[in-house]
Amino acid sequence: MESKIEVVGLNAGFGSTHVLKNISLSIPRNRVTAIIGPSGCGKSTFVRCLNRIHELVPGAWVRGKVLLDGKNIYDSDADPVEVRRRVGMVFQKPNPFPAMSIFDNVAYGPRIHGVKDVHRVVEESLKKAALWEEVKHRLSHSPVSLSGGQQQRLCIARALAVKPEVILFDEPCSALDPVATAKIEELVLELKENYTIVIVTHNMQQAARIADYTAFFLMGELVEFGETAEIFENPRDKRTEDYITGRFG
Amino acid sequence: MPRTPLERGMEEIRSEVIRLGGIAKQAVLMSVEALKERDMQKAARVDELEEESDILNLHIDENSLKLMALQQPVARDLRFVNAMIKISDNFERIADLAQKIAEIAKKYEERELLKPLIDIPRMASTIAEMIELDLEAIERHVSPDTEKLVEKDDLLDELYAQIYNELISFMLRDPRTIDDATDLLFVARYLERIGDIAAKTGARVVYMVEGRRVWVK
Question: Which residues, including other chains, have CB under 8 Å from residue B100's CB and lie 6 or more apart?
Fold first, then answer.
């Protein structure tokens, strides 16, 4: 298993609150890694440290290393904007820019990065996000007219448009119905051919269905990390077992 | 803490599997008694037990599938449901083999057996002890004493070898005994096979409880 991201001794928090405690973890390249754990365990903070958006919150701090292809993204010479281009993110609630057209939502990133052939990039990204056929005749429409699932796929297309290497999903299906969820899951499985995926989820079955590897976080600590099938059939740590079987606490 | 639907469903399956194990054990003992005593009523009773085991096994299978579909068990719960499906099949298979013994017993309603049965009833009682070890472990949700299971399975293998040699010598001495000797040889073979299944059941209980693979053989 070749790792895309190597997290070494990561600590993070807000002011005097210590959220992540000494996390070390290898995220395999071209695989789906799920992060599970109860609310407040630090899952979201963890993924937000992987593309340096945690630090955008006032009072937030990070210590430790996050090596992306061997290079620490927290080195003083690392460019956070470039890190965020390489490590894209899709959030819990679909958040397309409401005042922009469908086309401009996807074109926004490439334009900022000075890409010339924006039309081609937009079409490619919408195709990769399995949305092209549904929107190709209404690219100038507002994204507000799309369903929740379509909006989420638009956000995925927007993330893909800047040609990232890693995509972080923070509970991407929690606001979607089962049909839209199935489409996103199918898409994630297709995307792992070309991208490294990290997905935070509260849905145990979703983690079991789509992740190759699963990490269980509890109170800011990494309790267990391993192949998903192993975690769900025969977890090594009793706390993991108690959580996934719903006997927690 | 009140029990969840998953826990209630699991307990129901557990008690059905224990009941099925009891039926399998009774079928083995009764089939050998039917043969030994040439008791056709007992042979007929084995048929009934086999039918009961089929119905119960099917019911356990349906309940387990329903539980997986609706409650999505994972980790120890998943291992439990999976083990119950397999063990239920094992017990049903034991009842099938017992019925084959009862079929042989039915051939002897009007005639004597080749020889008085000593080792074959011993095999049956050893099997009953093995099934009891399995059932107690399932009931208490602990690993069975695998050393004891291995010991008893070894004893069954020895008894089978002994019976085999004895019957072969009968056949060599007098070819007219071939038909009757083959019947008893089959009975011993079925019992030896049942012992293997009871041992494998114990190994499955270990995996269910501890998540550790063991081979009881």
Answer: B186, B190
Task: Note the Cα A154 to chain centre separation in Å.
Answer: 15
A220 contact partners, CB below 8 Å, separation of at least 6: A18, A19, A20, A21, A41, A42
**Residue numbers in B near A233 (CB within 8 A):** 74-75, 78-79, 211
pLDDT at residue A1 in the model: 80
Cβ contact, residue pair A235, B75, below 8 Å: yes
Interface mutation target, options A230, A234, A244, chain B, most CBs of B under 10 Å: A234
Q: Does A249 touch chain B (CB under 8 A)?
A: no
What letter would DSSP give residue A34? Answer: E
Whether the pLDDT of residue B1 is over 60: the answer is no
ipTM for the predicted complex comes to 0.72
With 0.95 as the threshold, say if the pTM is over it: no
Partner B contacted by A165 (CB < 8 A):
no
Residue A30 backbone phi and psi in degrees, to 5: 55, 35
**Chain B nearest CA to A241, separation (Å):** 6
pLDDT tens, per residue, chain A with 249 residues: 899 999 999 999 999 999 999 999 999 999 999 999 999 999 999 999 999 999 999 999 999 999 999 999 999 999 999 999 999 999 999 999 999 999 999 999 999 989 999 999 999 999 999 999 999 999 999 999 999 999 999 999 999 999 999 999 999 998 888 998 998 999 999 999 999 999 999 988 899 999 999 999 999 999 999 999 999 999 999 999 999 998 875
Cα of B208 to nearest chain A Cα, Å: 10
Q: Does the beta-carbon distance from A234 to B73 stay under 8 Å?
A: no
Alpha helices of chain A — where are they, by DSSP H? 43-49, 80-86, 102-112, 118-128, 132-135, 148-160, 178-191, 204-210, 228-233, 238-244
Distance of CA A80 to the CA centre of its chain: 17
Domains of chain A: residue spans and CATH: 3-244 (3.40.50.300)
- pLDDT at position B2 is 59
Tokens for B144?
């069975």
Specify which residues A87 forms β-bridges with.
A166
Three-state DSSP class for A154? Answer: helix
Residues B79-92, mean pLDDT to the nearest whole number = 98
Phi, psi of A176 (to 5 degrees): -115, 155
Nearest to B55 by CA among B82, B16, B86: B16
